[in-house]
Specification:
- There is one protein chain.
- The protein is an alpha/beta fold.
- The protein has one domain: Glycerol-3-phosphate (1)-acyltransferase.
- Helix content is 40%, strand content 17%.
- Helix 1 crosses helix 2 and helix 4 crosses helix 5.
- The termini are far apart.
């Protein structure tokens, strides 16, 4: 399948970064150059996080996204079509104010899981924001300030274990983001060494805790 959507988004993200951010990237060598990969990142800014990551990673990057913030039905259709074209899996967040029904969120996750596994079978890379919500959002966020982290949701762990059941070992690359406001926002994007999940509930839980701790460490404020 054509990577034209990624090429467009990669170029557009570079424009956003050039105009609005002073971006420093560390640890890019930790991102595998090929094969299935999951990047687990801090979620701070509704726009800049994705742009920083999309502009920095030199290979096609797909993003697991939620579209419950799109209230207009026509707008929702347009966004769903755009995500389909870019091959961005879509999930629903049942915790949003009022939220979607739990069964609808579960159905959306199953569909997103199928799409995610298809991407990994092709040796592609998927970006997830396990917190679910950014600190800065023009709509709604449950975060109370620009420092707070939300506990990581375990959906990304489930995706990787589903891949393992099919014989795919998907490394999880932790990514940290820290920001300083200014005329141009200073942003530091730091990648950590790939981490792997062993089979078994206790091992999965330990890995999830280690990944969250590493993302927090990589997101420590700029000096």
């Amino acid at each position: 399948m054509s990577d034209m959507p990624w090429r467009f988004l990669h170029s557009a993200s570079k424009v956003v970064v050039q105009r609005r951010l002073e971006l420093k990237v560390d640890g890019l060598h930790h991102v595998p150059a090929q094969g299935p990969v999951l990047i687990a990142s801090r979620h701070f800014h509704h726009l800049y996080d994705g742009c920083a990551l999309m502009a920095s990673v030199p290979r096609p990057l797909h993003i697991l996204v939620a579209l419950d913030w799109v209230a207009n039905p026509a707008g929702r259709i347009v966004m769903e079509q755009a995500c389909h074209a870019a091959r961005w899996p879509v999930v629903e967040r049942p915790s949003r104010r009022g939220g979607v029904a739990t069964k609808d969120a579960a159905f959306a996750f199953r569909h997103a899981a199928r799409e995610s596994l298809d991407l990994w079978r092709e040796g592609r890379m998927l970006l997830v924001f396990p917190e679910g919500y950014p600190n800065i959002d023009p709509g709604f966020t449950p975060k109370r300030d620009e420092i707070e982290f939300l506990p990581f949701q375990r959906g990304y762990i489930r995706l990787v274990t589903l891949a393992a059941q099919e014989g795919m070992q998907v490394p999880i690359v932790p990514a940290g983001l820290s920001y300083q406001r200014g005329e141009k926002w200073r942003v530091q994007l730091r990648f950590g060494a790939p981490m792997f999940i062993e089979k078994g509930h206790s091992q999965e839980e330990a890995a999830a805790q280690a990944i969250e701790a590493e993302v927090r460490r990589l997101s420590e404020p700029l000096a």
